[in-house]
Amino acid sequence: MANKDDQFKKVISHAKEYGYIFPSSEIYDGLSAVYDYAQNGAELKKNIREYWWKAMVQLHDNIVGIDASIFMHPTTWKASGHVDAFNDPMIDNKDSKKRYRADVLVEDYVAKIEAKIDKEVAKAKKRFGDDFDKEQFVSTHPRVVKYTEQANAILKRLGQSLEKEDLADVKALIEELGIADPDTGSKNWTDVKQFNLMFGTKLGASADTAMDLYLRPETAQGIFVNFLNVQKTGRMKIPFGIAQTGKAFRNEIVARQFIFRMREFEQMEMQYFIKPGSQKEWYDYWKEARLKWHLSLGMGKDNYRFHDHEKLAHYADAAADIEFKFPFGFKELEGIHSRTDFDLSQHEEFSNKKLQYFDPEENKSYVPYVLETSIGLDRMFLAVFSNSLQEEELENGTTRTVLKLPAVLAPTKVAILPLVKKAGLPEIAKKIYEDLKWDFNITYDEKDAVGRRYRRQDAAGTPFCVTVDHDTLEDNTVTLRHRDTMEQKRVKIEELRDLVDQEVNIKHWLKKVQ
Q1: What is the pLDDT of residue 53?
Q2: What domains can be seen in the chain, in order of their start residue?
Q3: Pairing between β-strand 399-403 and β-strand 21-23 as defined by DSSP bridges
Q4: What is the pLDDT of residue 255?
Q5: pLDDT by residue (tens digit) across 329-357?
Q6: Counting Cβ atoms within 10 Å, is residue 285 exposed (0-12), middle (13-18) or buried (19+)?
Q7: DSSP 81-120
Q8: Checking DSSP bridges between strand 369-376 and strand 329-340, what pairing results, if any?
Q9: Which has more pLDDT, 82 or 233?
Q10: For residues 391 and 401, is the Cβ–Cβ distance under 8 A?
Q11: How many Å apart are CA 485 and CA 111, to the nearest integer?
């Protein structure tokens, strides 16, 4: 466990040291679970958003994007169920006075059981080598089977208790498992209570007439209330989708694990409006399509898994998470939910406006069903960043820290480095810089020995370095160095643009999704 903690601490400190993420208002000692994206972080975040948007909107002729406002009429949240049911189960420790999410305490307990399974698998893999059959081992090894049954039984009971709102049983489960306060080891718990997560605010100049509003806890409702506007103005035929990215706000009981769970975060969501009865087929389609999108970034198939929900929201008829292996274990990265006609029917009822689609093929109107894909942009950032940060042992016995970001997402694509600050080399380097900056986000660096500059760019995640040296004066060639392999080759200056474009152009990456 300590090893995982150490790795995660390295991720957090590296993110700050290399200009990716700063604690918010740090000069005033910061604000709990609020972070600022720094100069490199803002670029990486923008690139992830664009990679999602292009795949979702540009490459689908029946999906369009909107940007709805953060403030919405308060009845929206009554209709959506957030006013009455947007709660987390909360438990306090009487001795430490610390507050925890009850379900997360249980899930963390299960994660420790899963870590034991991983340990057994790793041991067996070492023992059997190439002959190792993971599926057979997991389904037949007595200890692993026992751990799996234990983990499943705990999660099933938790899911059922939360669904029935049997909070007394959630507390009983915590006590039966002997779960202690992670900080102090105390097992002196209060009862479990529900805690509403919405941030309230007011709209209006005077206290008497101000309207009570909420900061939106999700971006989806902005899509649902605009369903008919988009459908009519875009002359959209079912099936069609509406996508959007934007900020959402949740007053998390325990915001933790860096940017994994924050109070202000960004979502990338797409609501797909479909004919009732076709939801199973679209659910399977979007599960596969979204996993393909993730895999196109080349972060390793073994780092993803599907988790089908035991506990479904009352309106859903199927739900699954794509989980990613973060430094602290497998956790939800994206949700795919079959939401039936709940959302549009609720808004129809509360607004007294018809939100129906006239289907010319069926010659009738109906409230469409909805298939949702929802991913946290900050979580995606953490998945990409933590997976990319690596310590490598080199042949000469030294180590290097390298941030192997997918080149398509890297904030800076190329660093231009003159070998020395004289002999006309900086002038040529600056000319290359001026030429390439129209196509790529690039940087110029002439300080320190070139080896040190390479290391700096490796740690910052820059996929390519271009070195201008004395030979450049003779033959108009430069050294192009690859971050991941450290391979260096001489190329003509006029070939640079095409060579870099082959590696970083979004088109070449997204073609893997098609």
Answers
A1: 97
A2: 1-69+216-394 (3.30.930.10), 87-196 (no CATH), 412-510 (3.40.50.800)
A3: unpaired
A4: 66
A5: 899 999 999 999 999 999 999 999 999 99
A6: middle
A7: THHHH-EEEEEEBTTT--EEEHHHHHHHHHHHHHHHHHHH
A8: antiparallel
A9: 233
A10: yes
A11: 35
